[in-house]
Amino acid sequence: MACCMMLIRGWPMSKLPDITLDDLPGLLAHIDADTNRDSWVKIGMGVKAHFGEDGFNDWNSWSQNSPDYKPADALSAWKSFKGAKVTIGTVVHLAKEGGWKPTKRELTAKEKRERKAEQEARRKQRQAEVEADEAQLAAMQAEVQRITGRLLAEFTQARGKSEYLERKQVPPYGVRFITRNVVLSIDAQLMRCDLWAGDDIARFFANLPNPRPDHHSFMKLDAGTFVVPLRDIDGVVWSFQAISASGTKLFPKFARKQGCMHCIGTLDGAEVIVAAEGYATAASVAQASEWPTVMTVDVGNMAVLARLIRQKHPAARLILAGDDDPKPDGKNPGRTAAEAIAAELGLTVVFPVVPEQVAA
Questions:
Q1: Is the pLDDT of residue 331 over 70?
Q2: Is 220 found in the same domain as 202?
Q3: Boundaries of each Primase C-terminal domain copy (predicted)?
């Protein structure tokens, strides 16, 4: 599916049939709503990229045909769709695979003019939405970067204990330990992040609106949680992943993840570099192999980092340590994705066999 999606994104829009909002329900009806989440997200992105907010109702109605449908999840996913990395071409391709055929009808000159004007108005509106989203994201990523620096400097230390690390039997390579309870709040409307500690935590929750508005989010970090700083390829810290004693993993909303990693060991001059998804797997590989290892957070980011690492460290042999985690339905998305990345970039991929208690 991933290779197919990349091909579709490169499909010239001029070769696509003329898709109107009236066509959308019929288009979606030819696609199985009970698909994997990655495809479901891409279909939503394609709809939003072409129709903007006008496409939500039809996409949401189609999504309800899946037994896994959750209204809050659909709305949250739709709001997260930014930019136009996936086009309506993805939706058209999948609909055609399901038997959809565009309706051929000769338009009058007036209808052609009206259709063209409608498409141009929609394009300008969507372009304005994309530019506004991108500006907000850039501003909020910078704000998260600022608050991450403050969090690391004022509320963490290099030494500490974590039940999660003890359970996984891995060392704390370059991570930071929360020293006291702190709340990180993010307000997209005010375009700012804040940290609350001590008595201010109670004041924060007392003043928190109920219900909480969509533009306001927060995360509570307790003592016993450790923080994994995430740096770009040049070593600049942008954000973090917090891992609690129970193993719950959290990211600040808007935090930059793409192209960011956590390094165990030094990459400069390395003969071999290993890339793994989760911290426990990366730490286990580094401990066993003594090779510098990077935590990529997820397999999508692994593909991005693989290219960046090869560009910056061309002499190093890059090995992917993929996740081998079969699902009840027999699918193994982590292994499938890692093998696809390795095949595309000509890399070696391995699937570490570790005791269950050490798995990422």
A1: yes
A2: yes
A3: 27-95
Residue 113 clears pLDDT 60, i.e. is over it: yes
Peptide bond into 211 cis (omega under 30): yes
What integer pLDDT is reported at residue 13 of this predicted model?
45
Give me the number of domains the chain comprises.
3
- The answer on pLDDT for 7 being more than 50 is no
Co-location of 52 and 80 in the same domain: yes
Q: By percentage, how much of the chain surpasses pLDDT 90?
A: 63
Asked whether residue 117 is assigned to any structural domain, the reply reads: no
For residues 310-314, average pLDDT: 95
Q: Last residue of some domain: 260, 280, 296?
A: 260
Q: What is the pLDDT of residues 250-272, one digit of tens each?
A: 999 999 999 999 999 999 999 99
Backbone angles phi, psi at 104, to 5 degrees: -95, 120
**pLDDT tens profile 129-149:** 778 888 999 999 999 999 999
Contact 8, 90 (CB under 8 A): yes
Distance CA 165, CA 279 (A): 10
- Considering the domain architecture, whether residues 199 and 227 belong to the same structural domain is answered as yes
Q: In the listed set 260, 279, 301, which residue is the last one of a domain according to the structure?
A: 260
At 191-208, the pLDDT tens digits run 999 999 999 999 999 999
Inside any domain, residue 124: no
Q: Could you tell me if 172 and 149 are in contact, meaning their C-beta atoms sit under 8 angstroms apart? A: no
